[in-house]
Amino acid sequence: MHKDVFTLRDVSFRFPEDDKEILNGVSFTIREGDRVTISGPSGCGKSTLLYLLNRLYPENCDGIVTGDIRLFGKKSEVYAPGEINHQVATVFQDPDSQFCMPTVEEELAFTLENLQVPRIEMESRIRDVLELTRLSALRHTVIQSLSGGMKQRVATACALVMKPEVLLLDEPLSHLDPLTAQQFITWLEGLHKEVGLTIVAVEHRLDLWGSFFDREISMDHSGRIIADGPFRRKTPIFYTRRASAVETEPALSVDAVSVKIKNETLLFPLSFQAKRGEVVVIAGPNGSGKSTLLKSLCGIYKRSSGTVEPERVGYVPQSPEFLFLEKTIEKELRYSGFASSSEVESLLHRLALEHLKDAHPFSVSHGQKRRVAIGAMLADNRKVILMDEPTSGQDASCLQELFELIHERVQEGISFLIVTHDMEFAAAAANSVILIKDGRMTGKFAASEIWQDAPLLASHQLLPPKGADQHAAAFA
User: Fold this and answer.
1) Which of 48, 109, 222, 326 is most buried, most CB within 10 Å of its CB?
2) Torsion, Cα of 185, 191, 192, 196 (10° steps)
3) What CATH number is associated with residue 258?
4) Is the torsion defined by CA of 298, 399, 290, 370 positive or negative?
5) Are residues 170 and 258 in the same domain?
6) Domain count along the chain
7) Per-residue model confidence as pLDDT tens digits over 446-458
8) Quick one: pLDDT at residue 476?
9) Which domain holds residue 170?
10) Which pLDDT value is given to residue 244?
């Protein structure tokens, strides 16, 4: 008989300054060895629910909790600060939020020190978890030099080095390339079978998981559970491709751009053009230089060589908080002064931010923060917009709206360069695809041809989008 790990009875949660609860009357039980996904629209309280399960809330906030929460059969409030984390490990949606030390090895050692693991035992545990997560080569690497996907793998290693009974995952695939995501799921399945780990994951892209989960808890916008039952395999979103508005005039010219930091070449010289109204997807393995390219184009990284014309481009980073300057979401969208009141109101509505317009940009969910950043760039009258993983943390309706917004701006001659691992979104939105591997540009390919070239995609850790034949037909 498997023991109860988490038991919630009529649990609600809100912050003192909020009028409405984030979670409303939540009840469920998760048992030892279960594989459960928590699904629902962006901002419905999924991550908040995880934070109650690991005692981050209300331990580290002023949140108000009602109802009964039991962890391993004991009332949650009887656990001392940090005590439950010996048994429950968490991988957060934004891996940067949980790193304290400069290198991978030091971060793992710091985690073990907090658990008071004897120093003589640390070496073997660090070595074993690095081998398990295939990160041995990165042992002495500075974490902040890694890509978002590699950081996610390091964060997972830090969770597993604790030898927890439960692993909480907040959108663990959002920054992983398709092949690495597939391998991550297979690896998790093996881990579950080997040690009986209980796994609870918040996820939007459930189609990627196949039949991994045995149960799904679904939530609605009000923070209530609307369904709790056996997991059923999901089909991916299939977008209807729109007619292209690509013009012959170049909107962005990149000539021999390279990036070298501290004698390490992150990006070798590359050149390409993006036309007015063109959507260019940049794809490749984790750590290949995709985000480095975007940062070099907008001036965040100093270019070691080459030129970019024009210099003024809009940029939506993986961590959208870096953009925020105002105290409300509405003011953030109005900041540039280029968009009219009606245009800002339309963006708030279409990005599902209307009800949050007076909220502080830092106070909303990760997916909502990303939409705030996207809205700010769309309101800023930029002719070229760079987006780094814009689909991460978005539910189906928000993805569809983002797709439509990009299409509308393309008709106005605005160009987009989009780094994404979402092959279905890429296949529907892209006119062309730039492939990058090991800091080198393989080439710029017509989207009408690349989705049929499975070997080329596989060599860049990519998988053909589901429905690739339909996407190819859409270009005909």
Assistant:
1) 48
2) -170
3) 3.40.50.300
4) positive
5) no
6) 2
7) 998 999 999 999 9
8) 46
9) 4-230
10) 67
